[in-house]
């Protein structure tokens, strides 16, 4: 099983619908993140959480909300989807205790491709 | 505002050649610079990373060169192989907190 699992892998939804993307991890990491990837724009941070009671906005949080249900689960919601939210969404995790180690990094899921029509 | 600027957007290299991807930043508080590799249909995966106390880090065919005064860092892939064809992202962070990613470079290595 993957360390970071995202569901669904692909989703097509209509404008105005509410949609939830889910992320679960077995890494035991305390930090979790949601990014979106768009061609030519790279990866942009939507929200992040350093523990269950900590939620922070990233650079592009408008139109999104998140819920950290447990250490291992972090969900991203689009309250009313719009076409420019069509993108590839990634969940990632990291271990707070390893931030100063030589190869500290995020573990990414395989992504959710979301299309809003 | 893009915190980390990456170039080129795409790169085509012959097998056996050297691939070079460049990144630049402005925030001098950044103290950690990882590179990620992404294959189609997969999430990015950490490739190699450097901290500003060294000017170069090498792991196998992959080398990061870091120029603190110029606020630039680059990834060099020696003896590039078709299996290296992927999208590469540079990133920067402050004390391992949120990563700011570059816009990505699509590398194609021609056999």
Fold topology:
The complex is a heterodimer of chains A (about 120) and B (about 110).
Chain A: E1 4-7, E2 10-13, E3 19-25, E4 31-38, E5 42-51, E6 54-57, E7 64-70, E8 73-78, E9 87-94, E10 107-108, E11 112-116
Parallel strand pairs in A: 2-11
Antiparallel strand pairs in A: 1-3, 3-8, 4-5, 4-9, 5-6, 7-8, 9-10, 9-11
Chain B: E1 4-7, E2 10-14, E3 19-25, E4 33-38, E5 45-50, E6 56-59, E7 62-67, E8 72-77, E9 86-92, E10 100-101, E11 105-110
Parallel strand pairs in B: 2-11
Antiparallel strand pairs in B: 1-3, 3-8, 4-5, 4-9, 6-7, 7-8, 9-10, 9-11
Largest sheet of chain A: 7 strands, mixed
Which residues of chain A form runs of ≥5 with pLDDT under 50? none
Low-confidence runs of chain B: none
The helix-strand sequence of chain B is EEEEEEEEEEE
Overall strand count of chain A: 11
Mean pLDDT of chain B: 95
Tell me the distance between the termini of chain A: 32 Å
User: What is the beta-strand fraction of chain B?
Assistant: over 45%
Structural category of chain B: mainly beta
Report what the structure shows:
The complex is a heterodimer of chains A (117) and B (111). Chain A has strands at 4-7, 10-13, 19-25, 31-38, 42-51, 54-57, 64-70, 73-78, 87-94, 107-108, 112-116. Chain A has 117 residues and is mostly beta strands. In chain A, the strands form 2 sheets. In chain A, strands 2, 4, 5, 6, 9, 10 and 11 form a 7-stranded mixed beta sheet that branches. In chain A, strand 4 and strand 5 (42-51) form a beta hairpin. The model of chain A has no long low-confidence stretch (mean pLDDT 94). Chain B is mostly beta strands. Chain B has no helices and 11 strands. Helices cover 0% and strands 53% of the residues of chain B. Chain B is globular and about 40 Å long. In chain B, a hairpin with a 2-residue loop joins strand 6 and strand 7. In chain B, the strands form 2 sheets. In chain B, strands 2, 4, 5, 9, 10 and 11 form a 6-stranded mixed beta sheet that branches. Chain B has a 5-stranded antiparallel beta sheet with strand order 1-3-8-7-6, with no helix packed on it. The model of chain B has no long low-confidence stretch (mean pLDDT 95). Chain B has strands at residues 4-7, 10-14, 19-25, 33-38, 45-50, 56-59, 62-67, 72-77, 86-92, 100-101, 105-110. Classes of the chains: A mainly beta (117), B mainly beta (111). The A-B interface holds A 4, 33, 35, 40-45, 48, 58, 90, 92, 94, 98-100, 102-106, 108-111 and B 2, 6, 9, 32, 34, 36, 41-46, 48-49, 51, 89, 95-104.
